[in-house]
Amino acid sequence: MAPRDAVATKERILEAAFEEFSRRGFAGSRVDLIAERAQCNKALLYQYYGDKESLFRHVLECKMAGLQAIKENQGSFAEAAGEFFDFYAANPCLPRMHMWEALDFVDAPVPNEAERAQKYSQHVERMEEAQRSGGIDPTLDARQTLVSLIGLIQIWFAAPQTARMICGGNPYSEEALKQRRAHVVEAARRILEAR
């Protein structure tokens, strides 16, 4: 019998969990289906990741790490919006997972809430610095603006059927993504530009 490859098994579990959580949310997902998709047994899944909430937390951490890796160019927050769009284009199920998270946890703290709130606060601080230096409209509420930019980016992936009905065609086609990215960057530029 060949030795088990723990790294490969952990990766399979994370990918299977991401698929399951994206499709059914936290409450609707079943650990036995995740284990089956990952081609491992439930005991091994629990050994590696603990309970279902810990697995959900870990999946989010892994996916959100890609967002944290994007380095904001303070000279061009609008172009940074394009880079965030690119991340979601490569991970189109992540906004769906955020929506499930909102439905499943309602008013309760979500996994990694404190860490994620800290990251958002850092984005707000960078925007406020840019406002003080004249790079962003100083009359904007930086927190509200960040929420608006996130919505501008994520709606394409959270509600692709709406994008399809309004814009026509496959919203995930190369051309549609290119057009949407250009729009996101230009809209962000216009929203943020100092007046």
Structure write-up:
The protein is mostly helical. It is 74% helix and 0% strand. The protein has 10 helices and no strands. The longest helix has 23 residues.
Report a brief summary of the structure:
The chain is mostly helical and 195 residues long.
Can you tag this structure with a few keywords?
195 residues, single chain, mainly alpha
Helix amount? over 70%
- Elements, N to C (H/E): HHHHHHHHHH
Write down the Rg.
19 Å
What is the multimeric organization of the chains shown?
single chain
Major β-sheet profile? none
Low-confidence stretches: none
Mean pLDDT: 88
Distance between the termini: 69 Å
Number of strands: 0
State which percent range the strand residues make up: under 5%
- Structural class by secondary-structure content: mainly alpha
DSSP helix count? 10
